[in-house]
Please model this.
Amino acid sequence: MKDKNFTFEIYNHIEQVVPTWRTMSEGKDVLFSYPFLKTVENYAPVGITPFYVVVKQDQEEVAILYFQLKFVKLIENLRLSEQEGATMVQRAVVPLRNAIVKSIQFQTLICGNLLVTGSYGFDKSQYASADDAFLFVTKAMDAIRKKLEKENIWVDLMVIKDLTEDQRPKSRTLQKGFTKFKVQPKMLFTISEKWATFDDYLADLKSKYRVRVNKAIALGKPIIRKILNFDDIILYRTEIYNLYKNISDQAKFNAFLLDRFYFENLKKNLGEDIQFTSYWLDDKMIAFYTSIIYDDTLNAHFLGYDHNENQKHHLYLNILLDIIHEGIARKMRLIDMSRTAIEIKSSVGAIPQDLDLYVKHTNSVINKSLETLITIVNPETNYVYRDPYR
Model:
């Protein structure tokens, strides 16, 4: 866009910007929609404050941006453990890494949504480029920082999260001062047009993967699946939350803990666009997963399971297989399996999509050391990707 004279309108609540948000996000991903963001705002994890920005050019709305403010105390979010399969050099820096982790705490302004994998921080007009979007984001961050400073809140770290290749800016000038680094990829599962049923998917697997899948299915036979409605989710709120927390507490990095009323209100606001699948054994809920549907994509959202039952019944693998089954039955084109559990997701056919984070510290001295700090705190992890298809 040639004319760079833009104005930025900042709002604290999505209700203040409903008409604009509904219009500009209409037909776009549900995870950037008014109902979803309303749920995240009203039942936000502790410590997350949202900001909504409308970018205008000559009074015409050209972009909407979404930010979250979060005070990050890294020692509370990162599990300090020696990485499995770490090299001798990586093991040698563990004491230094742990010391640094214990000292890091930043008031962080994030473009995007910590609750989902992917950017989900901006939507622009068709005439705006990736460079334009990056410019909008950085200018909006400066505007939010100035607004917060008037309230005696000082932003330390700015983060633009999970940009895909086509979202990355090409201009080096725009990126000046930012450190770019790769994070765990998003795992995407493409549903073949020739798969009319789940059995068609199984037939396309290599023998050893099909044997593994069939074994997991056999171990899961005693389990009963139930689709929960809004009232059910309220009734089993405690069981659901405890199963979710089982997984959350085991994560190597966890930036937040969901509100215990999040799931029922997500169902209330998204309606038929979300499905809540529960797993039962001897009248006890032992697992669940949530799937959010948009257009031809099924998004695997939060899940939870009992670790002991997972070992006996291969719960996690069965959940992945059920998500694939659901996607095929709904005639979806794509399943977004989010990040984490890279190897097992690739073993069922998901492939990685690379994502980049852009970070910048407001202190120029610390900012120059960011790349080194990131390398120490978040060492590169090598994953074994599987190809299960014949």
In short: The two ends are 47 Å apart (CA to CA). The chain has a mean pLDDT of 90. Residues 309 and 315 are 7 Å apart (CA to CA). The chain has 17 helices and 13 strands.
